[in-house]
Design brief:
By secondary structure, this protein is an alpha/beta fold. The protein has 29 helices and 14 strands. It is rod-shaped. The two termini are 79 Å apart.
Amino acid sequence: MGKIFKQLGRHWAACLVVFALLAVQAYCDLSLPDYTSKIVDVGIQQGGIESTVPDTVRDTTLQALELLMSEEDAALAEQSYTEPDASGVRTLSAEAEAVKPELEEAFTTPDVVLYMASAQHAATAQGTTETVTPTWTDLDAVSTQFAAMAQTPGFSREAVQQQLAGAMASVDDSVAESLSSQAMLLVSLEYEAQGIAHDVQMAYLWRVGGQMLGLTLLMVVVAIAVGFVASRVSAAIGRDLRRETFSAVIHFSHAEIEQFSTASLITRTTNDIQQVQFVCVILLRMVAYAPILGIGGIVHVARSNTGLTWITFLAVAALLILIGVLMKIAMPKFKLMQTLVDRLNLVSREILTGIMPVRAFSREAFEEQRFDKANKDLMQTQLFTNRTMAGMMPFMTLIMNGTSLLIVWFGGKAMDMGTMQVGEMIAFITYTMQIVMSFLMLAMVAVMLPRAGVAADRIDEVLHIPATIHDPTPEVAEKARARSHWEGVVQFDNVSFRYPGADDDALEHISFTARPGETTAIIGSTGCGKSTLLNLIPRFYDATGGRVTIDGVDVRDMPQHTLHDLLGYVPQKGVLFSGTIESNLKFGGPQISDGDMHQAAAIAQATDFIEAKPEGFQSPIAQGGSNVSGGQKQRLSIARAIAKHPRIYLFDDSFSALDYKTDVALRRALKAQTDNATVIIVAQRISTVLHANQILVLDEGKVVGIGTHAQLLESCPEYREIARSQLSQKELGLQKEDE
C-alpha cells in the first residue's frame, strides 16, 4: 500500500485539488437531506412559515397578541413593526432581524393561546366539543373579543401573564416543540386572512428548492471535476510506471532478464500497472470521499436529537462484521490471482512462440490441456472472488433495508408522540444510508487494495532490483569520455566468469588480444563458452575474475554508452524490429547516412533481395522480421552493424544461415571494410574462420589452442578434430601425414 501512496504523493498538488473538491462535494451531499427536510416539514406541512413571528400582520391581530405578552415583550413587538398601511397591515422592519430570537420567544406563547382560542371559537360556533381547525374569520372574532376584554374594567396584563406562566411551567420539552408548530398555525391563519398564504408557501419552496437545485448542480460539476483530475492523475501514474519499468528493463543485464520471465515482465508492465492505475482512481474518488461523507453523516445524525442514533451504530457494526468475514475468506484468493495471471501469460507465450514445433510433434492436444489447466485455475479463483463479492451484496441490501425499516418503525412512534416530523425522518434515513454507503465504499476498496498491493510490489521489484551492470562513478567515467580517439584493441587479461548461482566457472583464465586490422576467431564445441566470452565485451555480463580492456581501459570503467558506441554487435539470432528495411539499417543512430546504408547492404550481400522488393529500402519489416527468411534476416543484422562504422565488430555465429557462396563473398567484402577495425568472430564452421589472423579454440570454458589455421592443425588436437569433421583431407593438407 505504501508504494501506491508513494505514487500518489508524486502528484500531491493534484491530490490536494481532489481533496478540496471532495470536501465541496461532501458538503453539498450532506446538505441536501436538510433541504429535503425543510421542504417537507416547513414548505409543505407549515406552509413555508419558518418563524412564529409573522413577516406581515394586521394591526388587530398584533394588538391581540400584545395583550398576551409582558410589557417589555409588547413594547419590543410594537417597535419591530412599521405603522399600519391603508389596509391595516404592518410589516416587520429590517432592524427587527437583529432581535429575531427575542421576538420568537415573545410571540410563541401568545400565538399558541390565540390559535387555541380561535379553535375553541370555531368549535363553539359549530356546536361541537371536538377539536376543530379554525379559519381566519375565527381569528378575527377572537381578536375582537380580546380587544373588548382589554377595555373591561379590572383587566390586568400581569394577571394574564401569571396564568400563562403557570400553564407553561408544567409543559415538558416534547410538548414545547409541538407548541412551536401550533404557534406557526396562527401565523398561517394570519397569512390566510391577508390572502398571501399561497404566495408565502410558493416563495419558500422556490427559494429552498432553488438552493437545493444549485447545490445539486454544484455537486455534479465538482464530481465531474474530481473524476477528470483523478483520471489524469491515475493516467499519469500509469504512464510514469510504464516508462520507468521499460527504462529499467531496457537497462537490464542478461542476469536480470533471466531472473524474470518475459511473460512476467509483460504482465507487470501491462496488467499490474493497470491494477495500480485503477486503484489510484478509486483511492482518489472513493477512499478520500467515504470518510468525509461518513463522518459528516455521523455528525448530522448525532445532532438530530431523534433518539434513533443507536440504529445507525447497529447498522455500522453489522456492516463491519460482514466485511471482516468476507475479507477473511476472499483476501488470500485476491493475492493469488496475479500469480495465476502470470502463469496463464507464460503458458500462452510459450505455446504461441513455439507453435511450429508444437504442430510438428503433434502436441496440440497436450498444449491445449496445459493451457486449459492454467486457464481453469485462474477462472476458478476469479469465480470464487466474484461469488464472494456477489454474496456480499444481498447482505448489504438486507442491512440497509433493515436499517430503513427500524428508522421508519421507531420514527413513526416518535412522530405519533410529536417529537419528530416527516422531513426529519426522511433526512435521518438519508444520513444513515450515506454512513452505510461510506463504509460500503471502503469495503469495496479494501477488497481491491490487496491485489493492487501485490501488483505494486511486483512493479517495485522490477524497478528496484539491484543492477549487476552499472556505469562507473562520474570521476572514472569522465576519463573515458574525455578520450578523443580509440584504436579498438581488445584484451582479455586472465578473465574468468561464472553465471549467477552456478557452481563452476563457465570461462576460466582466458587471455588474448584482438588488434585493429586483424580478425580474431573463436571456435569450439557447442556449450564451450564462445558466446559467453563475446558477451563480456559489451558488458551483457561482467567478468567475475580478471579484466576485459579496450585500449587498456577496463570496460567496467567506461560509460556503457561510450562502450557501445565503439561496438558493432551482430547477435547469434538475427533480430529485426517492426518498421522498414531502412529504419533497421539505420538503427545505429541518426548519423548513419543513406550512403552508409547502401554501402552496408552491399557488403552484407543484401542489395539483391532488397532491390527485388517493390518498395526497396522502404519495404516493411514485420515484428521480429517474420516476413523475411533466416538468411535475409542475418544479412540485414550484419548490414546494421556495418552501417554504424564501429571500431570493433562482434559477430556471434552470425554467418550460420548463409550459404557457402554468400558467406565467402560477404567475408571478402567485409575484410576490405574492416581493415582498420578489430573483428571478433564466433563461429561453428571452419570455413568462416579459416583466414582469421588468430583463432581461439575453446573447450569447456578454457583456451586449448590459439594461433592460425595452419598452426592449430599442427598443435591443437581439438581443432584438428573439428576441422576433420568439416573439411576434406585435401583441404586439411594432412594427406601425407595420414599416409
